[in-house]
Write a structure and sequence with these properties.
The protein has about 850 residues and is an alpha+beta fold. It is built from 21 helices and 38 strands. The chain starts with 7 loop residues before the first strand and ends with a strand.
């Protein structure tokens, strides 16, 4: 049998992964060699230097060989972070590790069904994954040997699996709490069509957080009380300490699972010896009530995101029929209790939360065609086999479906040939359908809520059967998807013209494709170049920086990629203010492309310079966090007590992530995301204030900043600062006249930023330049002298000493080539509004 539809659906999870296979219209979760329906998402290398994946790797993850194994790599997708495997003497990216997990899953299918078409697959991703994370997942699939990969959002997959046999006109909440990520999606099922009404999520919230809070709050304090353990924390990179924490996490994970069934359990700690060579052994009684208290903030966070999703969609809670639970942690009784209490919406437990996503992915896959070129590669034709090209809808909510076909090499035949189409189940048998000039059509009857497999036969005028390729096809009756929405607004960073007039450049985020837009999507906007670009200049590129997020401040959004317009590509100098068209397009699998076109010189470009996320600097995160603390204290009068409490809790959580980031790349990424979320939340809260309060803030901030200009500005920068301040004053006055709260809140934020820069003696710019020079990528004329000023500069940042930092920056710049100096000084956005 040769099928034209994708047969494989995969849930590539943080903790566990599953694969489903569609065989003759029946979807099956394929078990691995150990007989399990799920495979732990763990990769490693054993003592014989052989790769291990799944349960064998999981069993060694928490033992003495833990440094040779890696779990939960999904949270690192799309980053430049690598994991070193000493037994292979190799650094591997998250997508390379994920590819090994996918290879293992694929081999499970081929072992049981050697005839399976494994050239294509549908792989699921969290709905709230970034563009870079989604693209990395697709690359992982390709590295695993899948030549065609389609991505599908996990909540949509779950909705398809649930709705396949429950196709009622209803609205559902898909509550997807996995091992490492959380998604919430509001899904409408109407007349066989699935639509996403709203969605939200957190890529750093899942069962892993529950495990670590048990370790941090219950186990570690007890150990420190009873044993000599110096510098015993997750931030300690020592291999022995890391091995101990790996064992503690497994103990916590086991307790979490036990407490879903029992009211209490015992944590048995046996992890080696302390600093005085005393055996570290103790038992801790741990109850479900204690566990629930620990995870309460996490569950509250998921409920807040759920309520926000319902509110933003404009849907009443009473209009939501049920909550469908997805992911292992949803089996925790407390999760269900809190959901029922907070939402008062019935919970439907009819689906297996561990396999529903893979099953839904496979159902969706049955409605996706394998590309024709891949079908050509696989075809096996005997002599006399005729090739047929079929056209039909592979997935439909209708009970009848039209199929048309062209049989090659029959175009000249006048009559006598006919085809017959028969369903595998016998539900439909066609009459003799005449083939005219090689073409035919028929209307098929479909069995509802199932994948209908059809066989197609060709006969000549004497009734002889002629082999066909392909000889079968399938049409799935059930739910179809109106389109997957994009989870984050995508746009570019541009220079604010008003700030250019003041001499203090400020970038802002200009949106292209709004959050919630249905994919595929494409848009073109016209900008102007922000500065002159000299022909043959190979250093000072005009940058087009693509970001995604919901903040007007580009720094609060996530990096996607950048394009650099180079002088080497120009026929002549490009003046400032030259028109430039920028086009961003995103396909159904979240792959993003960006192009520019400059009509005056007729040149274009679309080469993305990057495919992975930016490198995270924890020192920068610490500096910005301190600035947000000052901001909160300065504006505390405009925050409600509840909002202030939530902001303080987020600051505390961020500080914990920052503390643990030294030995855990995941915590570093988490801290960076938390900082951006914190800043965006504070921005929105401050924007939501009433106009009288905004006006009062404006007047206060203006006077404060004016005082800062007079008292703190250097002579040479005072004039520019005054010009910038007056631009902001005019913008603020205009906002007050027009009763524009959004503009006035933005002006207030810019006044705060200007004042902060002045007080810190433009430390933000200095810190940026210092970061660029101290990241190890620049070559200095005297490396030893450069290391001296780098060390002094880091100390100046810790001491909040702008004068010393400036001295270090100046000295470092003097040790760079002229080209490098220009590069560091010109890494701003290269475009501005027209």
């Amino acid at each position: 049998m040769t099928t034209q539809n994708i047969q494989i659906g995969i849930d590539l999870g943080t903790t566990n992964s599953e694969i489903a296979f569609n065989r003759n219209g029946s979807v099956e979760i394929v078990k691995n060699v150990l007989g399990d329906e799920y495979t732990p998402s763990v990769f490693g290398v054993n003592k014989a230097k052989n790769i291990e994946v799944g349960k064998p790797a999981y069993q060694k993850l928490y033992g003495e060989e833990s440094q040779h194994y890696k779990a939960e790599v999904k949270r690192l997708m799309g980053t430049a972070d690598t994991v070193h495997f000493s037994r292979l003497d190799k650094d591997m990216t998250a997508e390379e590790i994920s590819a090994e997990i996918l290879k293992s899953l694929k081999s499970d299918v081929l072992r049981k069904y050697p005839e399976a078409n494994a050239s294509a697959a549908v792989i699921t991703v969290p709905a709230y994954f970034s563009t870079l994370q989604a693209e990395a997942t697709k690359r992982a699939g390709e590295l695993a040997g899948f030549k065609h990969v389609v991505l599908l959002q996990e909540p949509i997959a779950a909705a398809m699996a649930y709705g396949f046999n429950n196709a009622k006109n209803e609205t559902w909440l898909i509550y997807d709490l996995g091992g490492g990520t959380f998604d919430i999606a509001l899904i409408s099922s109407q007349d066989g069509m699935l639509s996403v009404l709203g969605h939200n999520g957190d890529n750093f919230l899942g069962g892993k957080n529950f495990d670590w809070v048990i370790v941090d709050k219950i186990i570690v304090p007890k150990l420190l009380e009873q044993f000599a353990l110096k510098d015993f924390s997750r931030a300690n990179k020592d291999a022995a300490v890391q091995s101990m924490f790996a064992k503690l996490k497994r103990i916590a994970e086991t307790a979490k699972i036990m407490l879903s069934q029992e009211a209490k359990t015992t944590l048995e700690i046996d992890i080696g010896k302390d600093d005085e060579q005393k055996d570290i052994y103790l038992t801790i009684d741990f109850s479900r009530k204690e566990f629930e208290k620990l995870i309460e903030p996490f569950i509250t966070q998921t409920i807040d995101l759920t309520l926000d999703t319902i509110k933003e969609a404009g849907v009443k809670k009473t209009a939501v029929s049920k909550i469908i639970l997805v992911g292992g942690p949803t089996q925790i009784p407390y999760v269900r209790e809190r959901l029922e209490g907070a939402l008062n919406i019935p919970i439907d437990s009819s689906v297996d939360p561990l396999t529903v996503v893979a099953r839904g992915a496979c159902i969706f896959a049955s409605g996706q065609r394998v590309p024709q070129d891949l079908m050509e590669e696989k075809k096996e034709r005997s002599n006399g086999t005729k090739e047929i090209v079929l056209h039909y809808e592979p997935m439909t909510a209708e009970t009848e479906s039209l199929v048309t076909g062209i049989i090659k090499d029959l175009e000249e035949d006048i009559d006598g040939y006919y085809v017959q189409i028969q369903s595998e189940s016998g539900y439909y048998n066609s009459s003799k359908v005449k083939v005219k000039n090689g073409k035919f059509f028929d209307t098929l009857s479909l069995e509802q809520n199932k994948t209908n497999l059809f066989w197609i036969y060709l006969f000549d005028k004497k009734g002889n059967s002629i082999p066909l390729y392909p000889d079968s096809f399938s049409i799935t009756h059930g739910l179809t998807i109106a389109g997957a929405p994009i989870p984050h607004t995508v746009g570019v960073s541009i220079l604010d013209k008003g700030s250019l007039l003041s001499g203090v450049p400020v970038e802002k985020f200009d949106s292209f494709i709004e959050k919630g837009s249905i994919l595929p999507a494409k848009k073109t906007k016209t900008y102007q170049t922000a500065r002159k670009l000299v022909k043959n200049d190979t250093v000072n590129k005009l940058l087009i920086k693509v970001l995604e997020g919901d903040s007007e401040d580009p720094n609060n959004n996530d990096y996607v990629c950048e394009l650099g317009i180079k002088g080497a590509d120009l026929p002549h100098d490009l003046p400032e203010g030259t028109d430039i068209d920028v086009t961003i397009s995103i396909n159904e699998s979240r792959e993003l492309s960006v192009e520019y076109y400059i009509s005056s010189v007729d040149i274009s470009g679309n080469a993305r310079a990057t495919i992975r996320d930016e490198v995270i600097d924890t020192e920068r995160i610490g500096r910005e966090l301190n600035l947000q603390k000052v901001r909160l204290e300065k504006n505390k009068a405009v925050y409600s007590d509840e909002d202030k409490k939530k902001i303080e809790e987020e600051i505390s959580t961020l500080e914990t992530s920052l503390k643990n980031s030294g030995a855990d790349e995941d915590e570093k990424r988490k801290a960076n995301k938390q900082l951006k979320t914190l800043k965006t939340k504070m921005e929105k809260l401050e924007k939501g204030k009433e106009m009288p309060q905004l006006i009062s803030d404006f007047n206060d901030k203006y006077q404060d900043t004016l005082s800062m200009v007079d008292n703190f500005s250097e002579i040479k920068s005072r004039e520019k600062n005054l010009e910038h301040l007056e631009v902001l004053k005019k913008e603020g006055d205009k906002a007050i006249t027009n009763n524009d709260k959004v503009l006035l809140a933005r002006v207030n934020a810019q006044l705060f930023e200007l004042g902060a820069r002045i007080v810190l003696n433009t430390q933000q710019t200095l810190a940026y330049m210092f970061d660029k020079m101290s990241n190890g990528e620049e070559k200095f004329s005297n490396q030893q002298e450069a290391e001296y000023f780098i060390d002094k500069g880091r100390q100046a940042i810790k001491d909040n000493d702008p004068d010393e930092l400036k001295r270090c920056v100046q000295n470092l710049m003097s040790l760079l080539s002229a080209d490098s100096q220009r590069k560091i000084s010109s890494n701003l956005a290269g475009i501005t509004t027209k």
